[in-house]
Amino acid sequence: MARHVILHDRRLQGSAPIGRTLTTIQLDKSRSLFATFPIISTLGRLDGAQRFFILCHGYAGTNQRAGLCADMGGMGLELGREGVMHSNVARWSAIRGAVSTIVVYSCGAADTQPENVGTTADGKYLMGALALHTQATVYAADRIQWYTTGLSSNGPFNFGSWEGTLWKFEPSGTFGPALGNRVPLELGEVS
């Protein structure tokens, strides 16, 4: 039975769903993301390729060439101690074959402002590199994502509909808008 793995950075307040096919790995600024890769590889060998849900904040705030601060993303993911950045995304090749699909619930992960193409704020390039290095299909949106957590800040995540355009990045390097602005299996649909 294929499992679903949730990588949840606790700086994103809320709780991941609980279910028999779910394994949640909690990260924060003191826990190394890359130290979890052997666990992820083992799960992949035992249960087949995994579907990943990444729940974290996105790094945002600049248009490098124009020198502006604004609600722009594409600069990486605040996931674990290291984050996911242009400078370290190649390290994800350690879990190649253990992951079939990665769904990124993070603000502006696939955002690329015209002035940022080819810079360290090129989110489409970063998400494409993640797909290439893991050989997984990656889904990520290009805008700020809103979610609720029920009655408390530690309640279960409800991401609702995707804001902006949801992009699909293939392991081959091709990408485009996701059909119907949906992923094949949303986080709220797993148990």
List unreliable stretches of 5+ residues. Answer: none
Number of strands: 9
Helix share bin: 10-25%
Strand adjacency order, main sheet: 2-1-3-6-7-8-9
Question: Can you tell me the overall shape?
Answer: globular
Whole-number count of domains: 1
Structural class given helices, strands, pairing? alpha/beta
Keywords:
191 residues; alpha/beta; seven-stranded mixed sheet; two-stranded antiparallel ribbon; 2 helices; 21% strand
What does this structure look like?
This protein has 191 residues and is α/β, with parallel strands linked by helices. The protein has one domain (4-189). The chain is 12% helix and 21% strand. The protein contains two helices and nine strands, in the order ββαββββαβββ. The protein has helices at 37-47, 123-134; strands at residues 4-9, 22-27, 50-55, 57-58, 77-78, 99-105, 137-141, 166-169, 175-177. The strands form two sheets. The protein has a seven-stranded mixed beta sheet with strand order 2-1-3-6-7-8-9. Strands 4-5 form a two-stranded antiparallel ribbon. The chain is globular. It starts with a strand and ends in a 14-residue tail after the last strand. The mean pLDDT is 90.
In short:
This protein is an alpha/beta fold. It has helices at 37-47, 123-134, and strands at residues 4-9, 22-27, 50-55, 57-58, 77-78, 99-105, 137-141, 166-169, 175-177. The model has no long low-confidence stretch (mean pLDDT 90).
